[in-house]
Amino acid sequence: MKISILLGALLFASACNKVTYVNPSTMPTGQVSEETGHYFIFGLAGSKEIHAERTCPEGVAKVQSRFTFGDILLGAVTIGLYTPRTYEVSCGKGAAQ
User: Fold this and answer.
1) CB-based contact 10:77 (threshold 8 Å)
2) What residues does each domain of the chain span?
3) Does 65 score more than 80 pLDDT?
4) Taking all residues of the chain, what is their mean pLDDT, rounded to a whole number?
5) 51 near 91, Cβ under 8 Å?
6) H-helix or E-strand containing 90?
7) Do 74 and 36 form a contact (C-beta atoms < 8 A)?
8) What confidence score (pLDDT) does residue 6 get?
9) Is-contact 65 18, C-beta < 8 A?
10) Where is 4: in which H helix or E strand?
11) Could you give the CA distance from residue 51 to residue 91 in angstroms, rounded to a whole number?
12) Which whole-number Å values give the CA distances from 44 to 7, 17, 40, 89, in the listed order?
């Protein structure tokens, strides 16, 4: 019973966290790159650098950081010892119209 409550609380606490940056000066091209950041101890240890300019040399339309269902599931199974996070970079081109 206590484990079920702990896992439920862990899933609830990590379920809704998303950060998005949208560049209004570029038009999305549809090219999307996804990377995973590896964090430990409920996200307290670890870091991830995203080099969007290398992924999209013609321009970046959007960068998003979020927990996917798989990320949350892995965090729950490892009881927060491993907590991955997914980063999505959408490429853009030219000026938005």
Assistant:
1) no
2) 2-93
3) yes
4) 84
5) no
6) strand 85-93
7) no
8) 66
9) yes
10) helix 2-14
11) 12
12) 18, 15, 6, 23
Residue 15 CA to residue 17 CA, distance in Å, equals 6
Q: Is the pTM of this model over 0.90?
A: no
The helix (H) or strand (E) run that includes residue 87 is: strand 85-93
For every residue of 37-69, DSSP letters joined together read E--BTTTTB------HHHH-TT-EEEEEEE--H
Is residue 61 within 8 A of residue 26, CB to CB? The reply is: yes
Q: Which two tokens stand for residue 17?
A: 């966290």
Q: What's the average model confidence in pLDDT over 55-84?
A: 90
- The contacts of residue 42 (CB under 8 Å, 6+ apart) are 75, 80, 83
Q: How far apart are CA 71 and CA 30, in angstroms?
A: 24
